[in-house]
Amino acid sequence: MTAWWIALQFLTRLPVTLAGMPTPEQVGRSLLFYPLVGLVIGLLLLAAQQLLGDSAVLLQAALLLTLWVGISGGLHLDGLADSADAWVGGFGDKERTLAIMKDPRSGPIAVVMLVLLLLLKFAALVALLENDSGLLLVVVPWLARCLPPLLFITTPYVRAGGLGQALAEHLPRRQLPWVLAANVGLILLFGWPGLLAVLVAGTVFFYLRVLMLKRLGGTTGDTAGALLEIAECAVLVALAC
Q1: Other CB atoms closer than 10 Å to residue 115's CB: what's the count?
Q2: 70-96 burial string, b = 16+ CB within 10 Å, else e?
Q3: Considering the entire predicted model, what is its pTM?
Q4: Is there a contact between 45 and 141 (Cβ–Cβ < 8 Å)?
Q5: Cα Dmax for the chain
Q6: Which of 76, 96, 144, 225 has the most crowded Cβ, counting Cβ within 10 A?
Q7: Cβ neighbours of residue 98 under 8 Å, at least 6 residues apart?
Q8: Phi and psi, residue 172, nearest 5°
Q9: Is 97 within a domain?
């Protein structure tokens, strides 16, 4: 169960305390539980939406988006911001891109990207709630958190050190494909919306993976976070439409 608590602590700001410093092997095994953490986030969003009842849709959407960002602590938004700055400022050079990505400061490109993504999420939430499709709130974070494990198992990790390297080197290669397939299968039980979500997420995954391989020769923790955020936004918009 340690791997589950590692995943929950890393991907959320829920009050989780580990008994001690996890081993690299336990960190790698935590990838098995990323989809489950996404499901927990989705269920929390659905519960919050139910509690908001007949509140104005715009207010519901704003509160749900705030909760969504708060639960994750903005972890993946930070990866998106770093990746956006690096992609524009790197001018196609791998080492320059990696160096900018490591810089904790955010430039104007990062700010613009974050504003646009959050604006799209807010508008999509409004449309989803107006269509009485609140149940689909479960699908979006659940499916999105299937993508970083898939990225790590299919793509070289190019930055030495840190949590990302432990994930890449110690991920459970035999169990992970089955876990991801099982989660996608459950999402498909949502019918056409589930199929649409999987198709959109898959398209975003393959497109961004090609860009990562072309620029970096692989992935980093930041680009994995950017993938999650962009896929989450794309799926949410597609379901809202």
Answers
A1: 10
A2: ebbebbbbbbbbbbbbbbbbbeeeeee
A3: 0.96
A4: yes
A5: 52
A6: 144
A7: 86, 90, 158, 159, 216, 220
A8: -80, 90
A9: yes
Please check whether residue 130 lies inside any domain of the structure. yes
pLDDT tens figures, 179-215: 999 999 999 999 999 999 999 999 999 999 999 999 9
Number of domains in the chain: 1
What does the DSSP 8-state code read for residue 56?
Answer: -
Question: Residue 108: inside a domain, yes or no?
Answer: yes
Backbone angles phi, psi at 77, to 5 degrees: -65, -35
Residue 232 belongs to what H/E stretch? helix 221-240
What are the tens digits of pLDDT across the range 120-139? 999 999 999 999 999 999 99
Domain ranges, residue 163: 36-240
Decide if 215 is inside a domain: yes
Say what the alpha-carbon torsion angle 91, 96, 100, 101 is, to the nearest 10 degrees. 100
pLDDT at position 161 over 80: no
